[in-house]
Design a protein that fits this description.
Structural class: mainly alpha
Number of domains: 1
Distance between the termini: 9 Å
Order of helices and strands: HH
Helix content: over 70%
Radius of gyration: 14 Å
Largest sheet: none
Number of helices: 2
Shape: elongated
Number of strands: 0
Length: about 55
């Protein structure tokens, strides 16, 4: 992997971590069960994407 590709993966990891954490925190504050579930699903999906990028390393 080139240094440029590595920088891209590192950047993508940071973005996915940010989204995962943001959706998890938001889900904890939402009262509506449907919206809460949706935010939790988004957090889980970003966690999966994070793991996919991490496995490239």
């Amino acid at each position: 992997m080139t240094s440029k590709e590595l920088m891209y993966v590192e950047d993508a990891l940071g973005h996915e971590q940010y989204f995962k954490t943001g959706f998890a925190e938001t889900a904890g504050q939402i009262k509506d069960n449907d919206l809460k579930s949706f935010a939790q699903q988004l957090s889980q999906r970003h966690s999966e994407i994070f793991n996919s990028f991490y496995n490239l390393l």
